[in-house]
Amino acid sequence: MKLTPYLSLAACLLIGAQGALLAAPKLRLAATTVGPVSIPAGSNGTAQEVEVYNDGDGSLSVSASSVAAWAATSVLGERRCSNRAGNCIPVRIGLNTASLAAGRHATTVTVTSQGANEGTQNILVIVQMGGGVPDALNLYVSPSGGAGATDAAEVVTLSRGTTAATTQTGGNWLSVAVQGGSFNFNIPYQVKATYQSGMAEGTYTGAVQFDGSTLASDNKRVAVTLRVTSQPIARPSSASLRFRTPLTTPKQLQRVVINNVSGGTLTLGTITAATVAGGNWLTAAQIPGFNIVDITADPTGVQAGVYKGSVTIASNAANGNVVIPVEIEVFAAGAPVLPPDSVLNNATFEPGEVVAQGGIVAIKGEQLHFGDPQQNSSLPLPTTLGETRVFVNNQPAGLYYVSYGQINFLMPFETATGEAAVRVERSGRASANTTVRVVAKKPKILQLLDGGDQAFYAIAQNASRNNSFPIPARFGIPNSEPARVGDTLVIYALGAGPTNPPVASGAAAPSGPLAQATGNWRVIFGNGVFTSGTEVVPSFVGLVPGFVGLYQINVQVPANVTKGDLVSFYVQEDTVGSQQVFVAIQ
After folding, report:
1. 234-331, which class in CATH?
2. Superfamily of domain 27-129
3. What is the pLDDT of residues 211-263, one digit of tens each?
4. pLDDT of 432 strictly over 70
5. What class is the 136-228 domain?
6. How many CB atoms lie within 10 A of CB 334?
7. Which residues lie closer than 8 Å to 389 by C-beta, 6 or more apart?
8. CATH homologous superfamily of domain 343-439?
9. Alpha-carbon span 14 to 30, nearest angstrom
10. Phi, psi for 360 (deg, rounded to 5)
11. Please, are residues 455 and 566 in contact by the beta-carbon 8 Å criterion?
């Protein structure tokens, strides 16, 4: 008879504590956005409801609040869910909007349940006073193709109706289509202009007719003017910005890239930041030498509430000034907030993915750190940066970086596989727990840039050619050139799991003996729909000496590989594979 050894008292207590963490209620929202709700100017809107449900054990105790007076919150009694099995608790949001000016307004409704996993979550509520259908639209496209060959605008109607697009000049360049959704209210439409072969540079006219909405102001003819031009067309990476920040915390920054999607050279001019209310909380400045604008919101001295502003960016573009609406929502400080799927693989940031033991992991949330962002500069990794700590199953984790909205940390090698509980503490104030699934290995190749249509180039160096980056030179990245057959590539990745010899969590990987990842690793080049790919056994897979959590994969480019600017490959270990990424090979 084989006897099962007794566990130590400490181990039993640890297992019991972890089990209690994971057995808690788990707060879930049926929706995290309400609207845009179109409302006639001078009127109150119809109350909206979002259902809250428990995806864990025990029971929820739900409360809701908002800093905007026009969004009145109340929690209703438990009832059968509308769109899922089981019972839900509705949060009602009354829209007392009669005093709001025409235009778009937004606020956050915060839903909490003490003691629940992901026990604090936000609902973004958007209203469009006076309706969401404009009187006119101006669109710009380039005759040279690429991203500039189309331009589009979103138009929202209160209810589903009929639409018709017509053009007076230039052919069939104008279209209108519903953008998803199965409901019959708050309907988003995309009005789109597409360059047609043979169109000369110049101005063209068209119109879109909206009919059938229950909001009378939605039913109108929208005049559309299209300009086809090879002059610069300025298109910002973000059409609008929203900041959400506690009272008296450090200022926050968001960066906007002003892209040129047509010909010529785009040059930015004067940049002006203006606020409607709340004081001078908004500033903006161009990064010298780049068409990038840093937009900063400073809540110092601002009272709780929602305030509007805008940044106007002058340029030599055919479409003139770029105007970016900006909002700041200021609220009372609280504990750190970790929404569902907030623990992410730091290579891809894909929500819902599992993470590996020993992997570099990011947390995205709110109020994670109130000081200036801090980057660790010593090894082994500390378990405290500034006033912030991260715990995995009640054990402190090593930290790389902390800021208001993001933390990078090392998932300890010692973390048991399965569902793990993660929490953040800031100055002793603890977040509710969030959960993430941990596996032994989940390789992810680090990504350098998007070559187009989500075809990401790998972060890799060519050890045979002066450590150049194996990407096309056209991207303008210094020391880059395509690889060649026989070259040795050093590919950088996360999540390759435990090593031999083992390395302590947070400690730098040794230079000898090298910490080699366990298992049978292959690199598969050129795998596609109609090809099986070329398998190569790498000469080394393991931790990069002197680094924490960073792996390298050394592999030789095979003789029969597909050649071109976008040659795909991925890494495989038995049944666990990485995402597909790309290199250039000539």
Report:
1. mainly beta
2. Immunoglobulins (2.60.40.10)
3. 999 888 899 999 999 999 999 999 999 999 999 999 988 899 999 999 999 99
4. yes
5. mainly beta
6. 15
7. 383, 396, 399, 424, 425
8. Immunoglobulins (2.60.40.10)
9. 34
10. -85, 125
11. yes
